[in-house]
Hints:
Elements: E1 3-10, H1 16-29, E2 35-42, E3 47-51, E4 54-57, E5 64-67, E6 70-73, E7 76-79, H2 90-98, H3 107-114, H4 116-125, E8 133-136, H5 144-150, E9 155-159, E10 169-171, H6 177-187, E11 191-195, E12 200-209, E13 212-215, E14 219-223, H7 230-234, E15 239-242, H8 249-265, E16 272-278, E17 283-289, H9 299-306, H10 311-323
Parallel strand pairs: 1-2, 1-7
Antiparallel strand pairs: 2-3, 3-4, 5-6, 8-11, 9-10, 9-11, 12-13, 12-14, 12-16, 14-15, 16-17
Amino acid sequence: xxxxxxxxxxxxxxxxxxxxxSAAVIAKNINRDKYNVFLIEVNxxxxxxxxxxxxxxxxxxxxxxxxxSGSVRFDAAFIMIHGTPGENGLxxxxxxxxxxxxxxxxxxxxxxxxxxxxxxxxxxxxxxxTSRSVYFNRKETANPFEVSKNLSFxxxxxxxxxxxxxGMSKVKNANELEAAIEKAFHEDNEVLxxxxxxxxxxxxxxxxxRGELQxxxxxxxxxxxxxxxxxxxxxxxxxxxxxxxxxDKQLTDEITAASKMLYEKLxxxxxxxxxxxxxxxxxxxxxxxxxxxMSSASIVPQQARAAGISExxxxxxxxxNAINR
Length: 325
């Protein structure tokens, strides 16, 4: 008997376009012999499924889909929404209240890891190096002088919650700070400023499959821009993403071990990607992505393919992880 899968895309943030692209790839490649897939778009006004040219709204009281042949209830929710509400614990809380399995980390873990500053504090407590940083939790008290006093330039100024490098700036001197902080506050009500670390960016996806942690091959990322910003991430030819990473085995093993350890320590679920910079001596943690992209340009599907896992098999693993959790 086929499982009914709600594939959720969209969201309330600037990453909604990437979310829709990822969901379209999943809908195209998922095993239709196993799953009835309903691509449901979520925005601030409504949640709906497109039946041809008609939009059918979701019954949010019980998360079901009214159709002419009866109400469709779902066996699992495949959350493919980056940012809010799909990555910060809001949708996770909703599905956990309703008792519907979902494919991401729990509500609590999603909420904590979406906050870059809190995540850095946790990661440091686990013995993994992070860049020095300054955190502003209110626009009114954000003082650029605090950055100049505590950090060395260049620095990255970014929204504390969010992804895809939206609202992020690389700042080379104190004169550029005020505008960069203002830009980041336009995207979020908290801002993180991190000291730049020079080196190769390395990233590793991890999933728990049938009780065992599995790390995918590590990817080396080299942006053709000044840093790996939104354009470099999502424009073909703007970055080189090499999987498996052409680095020595010791470094690959370090990145893999750190990623698996963080997956365990942060109590992650589903497929999660961990990003690092290698500073020439050791890996420096950058961030965790609990809803990694699944578009044709995304890193985790590339890593899965390098491990001999097709997109369809990857989605099977993700759904199985959700249902058997």
